[in-house]
Amino acid sequence: MARNLIFSIEEHYHIYSRGVDKRLIFIDEYDRDRFIKLLFLSNSEKSFVYRDIQDKSLSEIDMGEKLVAIGAYCLMPNHFHILVKEITEGGISKFMGKLLTGYSSYFNKRHGRTGRLFEGAFKAEHADSDEYLKYLFSYIHLNPIKLIQSDWKKGGISNIKQAKEYLNKYKYSSYLDYVGLDRKENIIVTKDAFPGYFIEVVDMQREIDEWLFINT
User: How far apart are CA 154 and CA 216, in angstroms?
Assistant: First the structure.
C-alpha cells in the first residue's frame, strides 16, 4: 500500500478512491447496488462466494465479526467516500482489499473490460480531531449535491429546497440512515462506534441545513 499512513485501532479515517483516468465506476443502479452490498460482505474475516448469497437480504447473512466500523459512505459516478474506524489489526487494509478486488472483478466482467478500474491504491486521511471527524459526516453526505449543481461550494446553493429533496431521495449514501429512513442498507453503518454527534434524526438534518445555508 503506497501511502505514508499507518492505520491504528480505534482511530477514524476518510477513505476514498476514483476510477482510473476519472472514468465512471458506477454505470447504473445495478452497479451501485452491488458495491453497497459488497460494503457489507467485505467487512468480515470470513470469505464468501457471491452467487451463493446474492438472493439473500443483508440481514439474512451472518458475516461474523467486522473488520472495521463504517460511519458514513457515499457513491458518486466516478468515485466513492467511506468513513471508517479501525477495530481490528489490519482491518482497513483487509476490508478495502476485499471490497476493491471484488467490485473490480465484477465490474470488468459485467462491462466487458480488462485492467485496473481504480487509480492506484485507495486514498486515506486520518480524522485526527473531533472537529474534522464531525465535518466529514457532512462533507461525505453533501457530495451528491454536485450532481445537480457542480459549483455550489463556490457559487452557493441556487435552490435549497431542491438540494434537500435531492439528498432525501439519493439512495446511494448513508445519509438516509441518519435521517430515520428504515431500509435494508441500515445494517452497513455502525453508528455507536462513532461519537454521538447525530444521535437524533434532527441532529443530522440540522447539521446539513447549516452547511447548505452557509453556502447561499
Answer: 10
